[in-house]
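User: You have something folded?
Assistant:
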Amino acid sequence: MRERLLDSADALLFAHGVISTPVDRILKDAQASPPSLYSHFGNKEGLIAAALRRRLHIWTGVWDTEIAAADCPKERALALWDALTTYQGEHMTERWCAFSGTAAATEHPSAQLQAVLDEETQLLRTRLLAVAREITGEDSRAEALASALMVAYTGTMALMLREDYPTAIAEGRASAQALIEAFAGA
């Protein structure tokens, strides 16, 4: 039952919006009763947090695979966009980032929901800073490069609302590559 609820939440909440998708629709899709949702997740925000946490686990695995396939620091930095291409093709049902969409739609998230949103942001920042340090070798420049890559990535996600996924991801990757080259060459 728990997995059916998560599957339905994933298919509906992030494609149609966490606010505009009623619990009744999720329950109907999962063929579940309200008590089952509340016993597994506590409330709708608990379900959203659990669905995001599951997504984060899958996303991290996809990104790990792309990082492992990269043979140099520049390619490890660009692995974020390669992972996005893979994830989009295999797992993504929504128009853009489920984490950004949830953060935008939830004015006052519960502590549980905020924790998973923060975890995803921290994963991005930590990994980008680590690879930026490999590229620049300097902390202040690494921080600037990591920040610029974070903006390029979130810009890619926003562009996915306006362009087809392959175009948005390719443009984001090209921007990231230009940033990496600028920082590596300076």
Remarks:
- The chain has a mean pLDDT of 94.
- The CA atoms of residues 45 and 110 lie 7 Å apart.
- Residues 55-185 form a domain with the Tetracycline Repressor; domain 2 fold (CATH 1.10.357.10).
